Amino acid sequence: MNEKTALAASVIDQNTQPKVGIIMGSQSDWETMRHADLLLTEFEIPHETLIVSAHRTPDRLAEYAKSAADRGLSVIIAGAGGAAHLPGMCAAWTRLPVLGVPVESRALKGMDSLLSIVQMPGGVPVGTLAIGASGAKNAALLATSVLALHDPALAARLDAWRALQTASVANAPVTENE
Ligand code: RP5
Description:
Elements (H helix, E strand, L loop, with lengths): L2 H14 L3 E5 L5 H13 L4 E5 L6 H11 L6 E7 L4 H8 L4 E6 L7 H8 L8 E2 L4 H16 L3 H16 L11
Parallel strand pairs: 1-2, 1-3, 3-4, 4-5
5-O-phosphono-beta-D-ribofuranose binds next to strand 3.
């Protein structure tokens, strides 16, 4: 491979190698976690989405989290519901920032998920977001902010996204369906 081809290959690698990992405990979490996936896609951030369960696939979790930094990931977004150990156990295996999304559970409406994720003992942090789709969306925005620290083009896309959001808010409410 000549120098030019090698450079091109490395640029391609940089662009396609996932920078953010989205993991979730179950297929049933996808309805929530797809909101993170959608936003990262909108910001053109290479990312991967996988089902990794702390309880049902513990070896898969250990393997995933232990290899994450070496594989080039910068941030992990982990969503789980119920006894939601996934973000905490993931954080135990990696020094990468882990953002936890409490998925709304059927029995306790996500309060169980929230408390399981947020109450990490000092020493192993998980950045905990809101319950449900808002949490998934904000986790993606936080991951974008982190990556934007060293990526001016991404920072510009994030600024533009936020400006658009601001512009979309009306000054006064209107009565609908009257
Ligand atoms: C957790 O249990 C998952 O994160 C999911 O939110 C919850 C229920 O999983 P399923 O029984 O729907 O597979 O591990």
